[in-house]
């Protein structure tokens, strides 16, 4: 597999919790910053979309009676909090970073403008997209696929706490089988929890590969960008 020049890294909010049950673990941020710095120092261009589930989950709130749109907007605000935390960690590590939000909040983040984001990437800055798509009813998976298409990323890298996609939960089933490669149709037909179906379909229509890998293994981000066999790749036939 060839390496990538420009990618979008999708992080879940839960990944930032570490061993905590809520919020942001500074050790996770620092570890992530070290990995990302190694990527930028090698000349790769990296954008990030982060979820907000470590702070607030709009879908869960909706299930408990909250208006769905209101819950989703609250979740979007949580993603901006996470984006600012990642920005702080990256800048302390010496990585130039910009946060762009789909929801206007100019005191803390730039508004999302595609051409400005592309210019930041060309200058070697990491761009973190917060605020989801700016619309309710869309997940941060879909945000990641959308932004990756917009900025011309060559791959969506989905960071998880397992080393790829399995036919069942490897933490619960010792006989779970890992897939090295899947097609988009495989993912949709088998109901594999790679990304939500809207995100997978968007990637399929734009021939954008999805790489699922373990972000907690040191050096994995750089290995994936440089084309080493890491995780599970999802692409066309």
Keywords for this structure?
237 residues; alpha/beta; nine-stranded mixed beta sheet
Description:
The protein is α/β, with parallel strands linked by helices and about 240 residues long. It has one domain (about 5-235): Acetylglutamate kinase-like (Carbamate kinase). About 40% of the residues lie in helices and about 20% in strands. It has helices at about 25-40, 60-65, 70-90, 115-120, 140-150, 185-190, 195-205, 220-225, and strands spanning about 5-10, 45-50, 95-100, 110, 125-130, 155-160, 165, 180, 180-185, 210-215, 230-235. Helix 1 (about 25-40) links the parallel strand 1 (about 5-10) and strand 2. Helix 1 crosses helix 3 (about 70-90), helix 5 packs parallel to helix 7 and helix 6 (about 185-190) runs antiparallel to helix 7 (about 195-205).
The CATH architecture can be given as: 3-Layer(aba) Sandwich
Unreliable runs, pLDDT <50, ≥5 residues? none
The fold-level CATH name is: Carbamate kinase
Q: What is the CATH top level name?
A: Alpha Beta
Number of H- or I-type helical stretches: 8
| Overall pLDDT level | 93
CATH homology superfamily: Acetylglutamate kinase-like
Strand content: 15-25%
Structural class: alpha/beta
What is the element layout, followed by pairings?
Elements: E1 6-11, H1 26-41, E2 45-50, H2 58-63, H3 68-92, E3 97-101, E4 110-111, H4 114-122, E5 126-130, H5 140-151, E6 156-160, E7 165-166, E8 178-179, E9 181-183, H6 184-190, H7 197-205, E10 210-214, H8 220-225, E11 232-235
Parallel strand pairs: 1-2, 1-6, 2-5, 3-4, 3-5, 6-10, 9-11
Antiparallel strand pairs: 7-8, 10-11
Helix pairs in contact: 1-3, 5-7, 6-7
